[in-house]
Amino acid sequence: MVTAIKKTWHRGGISGFYQGLVPWAWIEASTKGAILFFVASEIDHFLKSKLSVSPSLSGILSGMGGGVAQAYTTMGFCTFMKTVEVTRHKQVGEHISTLRIAFDVLKKEGIVGINRGVSAVALRQMTNWGSRFGISRITESLIRGNDPSRKLAIHEKLASSVVGGALGCWNQPIEVIRVEMQSQAKSPDRPANLNIWTTAKYIYEKQGWRGFYRGVTPRIGLSVYLTVCMVFGGDQIKEKFSK
User: Fold this and answer.
1) Domains in the chain, ordered, with CATH?
2) With contact defined as beta carbons under 8 Å apart, do 65 and 40 qualify?
3) What is the enclosing helix (H) or strand (E) of 83?
4) For residue 112, what are the CA distances in angstroms to 100, 155, 160, 174, 231?
5) Of the candidates 201, 217, 137, 209, the residue with the CA atom closest to the CA atom of residue 169
6) What pLDDT is recorded for position 7?
């Protein structure tokens, strides 16, 4: 991680850490949370009220549904364009705007091209939020013990979300595959048309099993932060409105 930070700083200074921020990260950040929160809440309400599903299983299923909805609405093309910004080859003295890159991809490859890797994004988000919500709910159940009706304290709810976010990073290999599928880096031995399985094979042949876990440390920090916002924070908001 330290090496990656140094390399990014050397290439672009402080601006190197914000590649893909405008407009792709802005679009993604301003939409994905609302989509997840709405879809997951509706699924969770239906499962509990209509099917009497347990909180743990409901958390897993609602998180999975919300994650898939995120991927196929806004996250697919946003993550692709952010990855393009970071990995594409930049000619010396030449600057091509992100919107121009998006237009060129759309012109050459159509809507499929600009959503390249969306299947990996959907799989990542489904396992991400299914794990984060599910593990958080399971942790809450363990804290309650033999009294499932006990109201958890704020610090107990917060700790459950932290555990859910950290353990939810078990799917880091899917994230690595997603980045590789959307990468614009050129390599003579890199297959031209990658899917999830051929990408996994390519990563393994190049870097072995360790290659599937590159970048896992900063992702744990991000996952904890997101889970606290969406699980703990979402519960607090719903509790306020229910009153």
Assistant:
1) 20-242 (1.50.40.10)
2) yes
3) helix 76-87
4) 17, 45, 39, 20, 32
5) 217
6) 64
Pull the structure tokens for residue 14.
């402080």
CB 177 within 8 A of CB 196: yes
How many Å apart are CA 122 and CA 215, to the nearest integer? 19
- Torsion angle in degrees (nearest 10) through CA of 102, 103, 106, 108: -110
The two structure tokens encoding residue 234: 């979402």
Digits of tens for pLDDT over the chain (243 positions)?
A: 666 666 656 666 676 677 767 788 888 889 999 999 999 999 999 999 999 999 999 999 999 999 999 999 988 888 888 877 777 655 445 567 777 877 888 888 888 888 888 888 899 899 999 999 999 999 999 999 999 889 999 999 999 999 999 999 999 999 999 888 888 777 788 887 788 999 999 999 999 999 999 999 999 999 999 999 999 999 999 988 887
Backbone angles phi, psi at 49, to 5 degrees: -80, -35
Find where tokens 């991927």 sit: 71
Q: What is the 3-state secondary structure (H, E, C) of 142-188?
A: HHHCCCCCCCCCHHHHHHHHHHHHHHHHHHHHHHHHHHHHHCCCCCC
**Cβ atoms of 227 and 136 closer than 8 Å:** yes
54, 134 Cβ separation under 8 angstroms: no
| Exposure of 177 in the CB half-sphere (CA atoms within 13 A) | 23
Closest CA to 120 of 82, 174, 79: 174
